[in-house]
Amino acid sequence: MKKLASTCLALASLMLQNSAVASDTIRIGVDPTYPPFEYKQADGSLAGFEIDLGNAICEKVSKQCEWVPMSFDGLIPSLRVGKIDAVFSSLGISEKRKKVVDFSDRTWTGFSSMLSLSSKNLLPTAESLKGKVVGVQQGSMQEDYAKIKLAPFGIRVQSYQTQDQVYADLLNGRIDASMQDMTQAQVGFIEDANHPEFSNQKMVDKLLPADSAIALRKGDSKIATLINNGIKAIHADGTFATIQRQHFGDLDLYSK
Predict the structure, then answer these.
(1) Please, are residues 90 and 180 in contact by the beta-carbon 8 Å criterion?
(2) Using one digit for the tens of pLDDT, what is the confidence trace for 72-128?
(3) pTM to 2 decimals?
(4) At residue 78, what are phi and psi to the nearest 5 degrees?
(5) Alpha-carbon distance 185 to 155, whole Å?
(6) Beta strands per DSSP E along the chain
(7) Rounded distance, CA 242 to CA 140, Å?
(8) Which CATH number fits domain 112-202: 3.10.50.30, 3.40.50.150, 3.10.580.10, 3.40.190.10?
C-alpha cells in the first residue's frame, strides 16, 4: 500500500510539472499589498517592480503570466498543492522555506528593517524593544525572526494578514514598530506614503536573508529551468536594468 501511495504522489508531481511547462501560461501567486514591489492600481490591475519583472520573464520564454492574488501566508501552501506554478512576492531565500520549496536564481537583494517613530528613539534590539509591541506580516521571515529572537525577551509580536494592516496599526499607535523589507519600507511607506517622521533601521541576522527569488514547487526542475532562462535573458538584453530604473531610479537592487 505504501508503495502504491508513493507511486501516486510521484505521478501527481510529474503531472503538475508537465502541465506548467506545456501550458501557454505560468500561474504566479502574489500578495499585492507590498508597493512598490506589487500592488493594485485604482482600476484593480496589478503593478509594481516584481510584476514587471515577472511579465518580462514570461515574455522571454514565450509564456503568459497569469497573476493569482492571494494572502501572503497562503502563497507557499497554494504552490505546494498545485494551485499555482510559482510565487513572486518578495520572498527571501530562507533556510526554512528551502525545506518546502525550491527557488529560482536570485531576482534582487535587499535587507530587512524596523520602522518606528523617530521620536521614540527605538533600536532594532531586544534590549530596546522590551515591553513593546512589534507588528509583522503573517508568513514572513520577519515574523519568524521576531517570534524566535524577540518574543522570549518580553516583546509582544503582533501578526497581520497584510502589510497594509501592519502599517495601519503602526500609524494609529497600536504597535510600536514594524518589521519588513527595508526598500519597501523606505519607498512604499516613508517616501510614497509621506511619513518622514518614521525611521527605517537596517536589520541583519541569519534568519533575515537579503536575497529574494521566485519560489517553485519542490523538484519541479522543468519550470525552474524555464524561469531561470527568463531571468538570464532579462539581464542579458538590459530589460532588468530598464525596469529597475523605472521603479527605483539609480538604486541598484541586484549588484552586491
Answers:
(1) no
(2) 999 999 999 999 999 999 999 999 999 999 999 999 999 999 999 999 999 999 999
(3) 0.88
(4) -65, -35
(5) 21
(6) 25-30, 33-34, 38-40, 46-47, 64-69, 86-92, 101-109, 112-117, 133-137, 156-160, 177-181, 198-203, 211-217
(7) 28
(8) 3.40.190.10
